[in-house]
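Entry 12.
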Amino acid sequence: MATLQAVKLDQAQKQSAITLQGSAALVGDYLYCAINSILYMRGVYPTEMFESVPKYGMSIFDAKDEELKSYLEKVMKWTKDWMMEESVTAIVLVIINPITKDIVERWQFKIMCDQQHAEEKTEKSVSGAKPAPTMEEIRRQIGSVLKQIVASVSILPATPLDAMNTFNILVYTKDNLDVPADWQESNPHFIRNAQQLHFRKIHTSVHEVDTCVTYRSE
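Predicted 3D structure (tokens):
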């Protein structure tokens, strides 16, 4: 009986183990929600260009402006495709003061992928090691980090009120990767004499996402 139960447990763990495609979809959705939340709370666009939707156990502000929404969805589609190829190393959202051209904030989402490590963790679950996180556990991780991002508005310097900020999205990839024709290389937009705020990491067993924001020290 004990042997039969062990086999059933192992089969359930393998069925719940996340795939590369599933992990890329979850990470892509996290990035989409995080970027939307940042654009909303940092005043890059007027509040009326967003709508509140329930997700991850909280209210997420999602772009309802068609042009903005289309742009973000296009970036996320390419990002998820490149994650499937294990070619993305980071996504960076840069917020810029349009008057001074200063970089106000630099939000970095560092993405690490190790498919072999994920397969090893699934195999180790047979011997009683800590199993890979389930889909529900990963969603709770995402919700926790999104709440941290929203709460960070009380720590970050106030954004300028004299002008609406602008933004750029940078995608860091490995070499020799085909990119859309309308994309172009960019400088990294680093901030000198900056302070940094780190958030919890998200682990899917296939991907690890390390989120942080760098901002100008007042």
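Annotation: The chain has five helices and eight strands. Residues 20-41 form the longest helix (22 residues).
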